[in-house]
Amino acid sequence: YDNPKDIGQISHFQALTSALSATIGLGNIAGVAIAVSLGGPGAVFWMIFIAFFSMSAKFVSGTLGQLYRNVDEKGNVNGGPMYYLSKGLEERGYIVIGQILASLYALFIIGGAFGGGNMFQANQSYVLLQPYIGIPDYIYGILLAILVGIVIIGGIKRIGQTTERIVPFMVLIYVSASLFIILSNITLIPEVIALIINEAFTTQGAFAGGFIGVLVTGIQRAVFSNEGGVGSASIAHSAAKTDEPVREGIVA
Fold this sequence. Notes:
By secondary structure, the protein is an all-alpha fold. It has eleven helices and two strands, in the order αααββαααααααα. A hairpin with a 5-residue loop joins β1 (70-71) and β2. It is globular and about 60 Å long.
């Protein structure tokens, strides 16, 4: 439900698509492939297991982002973990700890954005397209930076307007391709499910000590895939137009 009169800069749907834009493909396709290659089929079980609990982390993060956001006189919104860490802990009397944690998060999220949010995506797409476009990697990177810059220079409103048009098609392509692969191999599904469950609890594995290796790999890739607990999605959700923080937490 969207009320145009509520404080914020983007709609619930735009906030959701802004948050999803980084995880579909990067996390859901490449992340799963990496998890299976490192931890075997059993890692998929732990990805699903962790994703279930990640919904709680995502809900809390989205709610707190709304609850402790800053809104200036022009209606511009600033929010995210760096704000709810400092303001929330200050309310409980931990002013210094809150400021330190908020500053550390703000610093680390820059590194995360460069690495996981930019370099990984740019490299992943270049490797796929290079045989067809035949341009040097640095030129491809510059072109991507220009295209992204055109969008983000307009702020969260431009980002929301762009993602609400692009992300639904990304979801449609991703789900359709996944269903095509599953249906094309429908006879193997029982065998695959059995393999995933059996190897999820194996004591022998190709990756760093069996069960623990499969578990850790699944957790790492699950968080990379769904972003639950990372907090970056909270920055987008904090800008949504709503007067009910919990409502945006549910959307998240």
